[in-house]
Amino acid sequence: MENNDITTVAHKAKEAFLKTMSMDNETKNKALELIKEKLLEKKELLYSANRADSNNAKQLLEENKINQAAFDRLKFNGSKIRELIKGIDDLIKMDDPVNKPIWQKELDEGLILKKISTPIGVIGVIFESRPDCFIQISSLIIKSGNCAILKGGSECQNTNKALHSIVQEALKEAGMPENTINSVYSRDDIKKMLSLDKDIDLIIPRGSNSLVQFIQENTKIPVLGHASGICHTFVDENADFENTKKIIIDAKTQYPSACNATETLLIHKNYPYINELKEALKKSDIELIENPLDYHKEYSDRILAIKIVNDLDEAIEHINKYGSGHTDAIISKKQENIEKFMNLVDSSSVFANCSTRFSDGYRYGFGAEVGISTNKTHARGPVGLEGLTIYKYKLYGSNNIVDDYTKGIKTFKHKFI
Amino acid sequence: MENNDITTVAHKAKEAFLKTMSMDNETKNKALELIKEKLLEKKELLYSANRADSNNAKQLLEENKINQAAFDRLKFNGSKIRELIKGIDDLIKMDDPVNKPIWQKELDEGLILKKISTPIGVIGVIFESRPDCFIQISSLIIKSGNCAILKGGSECQNTNKALHSIVQEALKEAGMPENTINSVYSRDDIKKMLSLDKDIDLIIPRGSNSLVQFIQENTKIPVLGHASGICHTFVDENADFENTKKIIIDAKTQYPSACNATETLLIHKNYPYINELKEALKKSDIELIENPLDYHKEYSDRILAIKIVNDLDEAIEHINKYGSGHTDAIISKKQENIEKFMNLVDSSSVFANCSTRFSDGYRYGFGAEVGISTNKTHARGPVGLEGLTIYKYKLYGSNNIVDDYTKGIKTFKHKFI
């Protein structure tokens, strides 16, 4: 069917973007309000679609093709709807992230340059089998004036289709293009998406390391995300026992398979509670691997690599060498060490005296996130509305020509106003 | 020689970055001051290196392998040094672009999130045979706390080598790593550079469309730049004659081969001076091509494509279809039309009532530029210090754990402070 071909979808999304990029905040919020309403109105329909997904997934679970955690994440119920509505409410309250003046400058009399935030364009988002993600990502895309092509995990296909029709109805009723949010369902569409660099401006893949790496290596479209989350916590020599224990247990066990869970614990050799700490971690059902051969490993489980380091410098060096630039923390009472760590560890998020698990768009107050980036350009860390914007320059002249300036008839003022 | 191997160079640059990223403004400015001093002290040495390049290039000119304009751009003389010194002075006066707080937020009591500007990392810059670029780019890289691998046009090799040793001396005397600025000279190094994604964080290619496209297609490192500059000027029905003529002549002829020169003129069908304008342009030695078959063409010469359009909407549609997202201008007296054009044309720079030639880092007041970007992510338009930065998140805690928030024992405040 030609209409569902991803090339056509991408083209329609690009056309839609020429409208959404200048949509006012009121219209975008109206679409978000309607999504909220429809989630409640059509919940039975959503639950029934989700039951179909769950039934299919049950077989996958029995065949050990997915694990219990993945099966649980498929669930779409009243508490998920309440969480989503809260997230959308947060987004509605936020300022419009686009068409905001970043700065303005008088280049010369009658020649005013304005740097203005804008949306990016068409964004391809590939995400795991979690139906709540469909709505979170759609909401961020709508509020930021972008358009998207979503490819959710296939285990959620029925729920995502039902959610997609809700989103499209809401867009239509609010007076926004239906093609603001597009959804594709086949795994082949991911491959095709990578070649559509004329219409797709950014790809945000969430999922396994191998999927993200495959995407990074097979497209010239910019890719925003992270392949791995090798996060560290460094325990300084002056750290106490109780707080250190509490933070590390949270950082490792609160959600062991999350990308922001700590994978490697670095301990200063003079920390007085090394053995006590190890015992406490073992008692919390954490397997410790001392001096592993490979510090690049992401365990995603209740397993923690441990290394005793000579000093803060060695900790920083280790992190910059083996880390993935995601999130790294120091536990220390010495402000000087904290600042040194936070300045010299080249990661998107650097923490002092708290759990690496805080690295998350919702916890950062972004309403939600489309992903967490370990890129060095465009956006780093959890990506919310701000990371979905870029800017343009608007120059307001009064019949100015460059020749006057190169000939020295006029000179630039370059004054911020 | 192993030390000059680009893999080694990139690795040393990455090591240097771990120092430059937290360098204070004073040290960076000191290096810039020393570059200024040394440019004057060693000018005879520079002139002599430049004479060698000019002599080699003379032969290329005679063999028609380069044109007169390219030959002229090779020249490095007193006036070039004066311009460079002025540019460096501007940069020295500018605030440090890194380690600047962008915003800070109280996530909860004793849990403060700061978004702080940082440099990016190691940047590969490929640029044309213009020795002044070597110093301009080096200065921007130093001030922004990044490190660079520069590959200048081979016709400038001797001058670039002399400039590189000046820059490295200045870095050393200022107490910065010499490998902050690295220089490679072989064309093969460009190809090798594209595979070094572990050490190089960004590539900025300047040069021919084919070079930029080759780079975009053959690396997974982010690429910032523009392959082509297909800029438009749209003449609205209410535009006058004299100013319109003046602006278009400047936009086309002030530097016809520049990427920000207007390539296509769109005229509203009701503009009363269509014929007079055409005559005036022809008299200014501009060749007009009416209704060409290919509107994607970049003439880079005193040639201008012309199209009569029915209205503003058709002009906007044409630009979004055929433009390269570089710079597009409207000449109009109607504020409403100006705003519509500037909001709906999806280009990095949108101008009203002035020449497209203003699209340039120096003219925008950035001191200089490393390039002009038509990307939709990271940086758009002329890229100066701001475009060479990114950010990190610093989270200052007081022994906070995520478990308290998921269990509802604590709740987030998310308050900007």
What's the SSE blueprint?
2 copies of one chain form a homodimer.
Chain A: H1 6-20, H2 25-41, H3 43-62, H4 68-73, H5 78-93, E1 101-108, E2 111-119, E3 122-126, H6 131-143, E4 147-151, H7 157-174, E5 181-184, H8 187-193, E6 202-205, H9 209-217, E7 231-235, H10 242-253, E8 262-268, H11 274-283, E9 287-290, E10 303-309, H12 312-322, E11 327-331, H13 335-344, E12 349-354, E13 371-373, E14 381-383, E15 389-400, H14 403-406, E16 415-416
Parallel strand pairs in A: 3-4, 3-6, 4-5, 7-8, 7-11, 8-10, 9-10, 11-12
Antiparallel strand pairs in A: 1-2, 1-16, 2-15, 13-14
Helix pairs in contact in A: 2-5, 2-7, 3-7, 5-6, 6-7
Description:
- 2 copies of one chain form a homodimer.
- With about 425 residues, chain A is an alpha/beta fold.
- The first copy, chain A, has 2 domains: about 1-225 and about 375-390, 3-Layer(aba) Sandwich (Aldehyde Dehydrogenase, Chain A, domain 1); about 230-360, Aldehyde Dehydrogenase, Chain A, domain 2.
- Helices cover about 40% and strands about 20% of the residues of chain A.
- In chain A, strands 9-10-8-7-11-12 form a 6-stranded parallel beta sheet, with helices on both faces. A 4-stranded antiparallel beta sheet of chain A has the order 15-2-1-16, with no helix packed on it.
- In chain A, helix 13 (about 335-345) links the parallel strand 11 and strand 12 (about 350-355).
- The model of chain A has no long low-confidence stretch (mean pLDDT about 95).
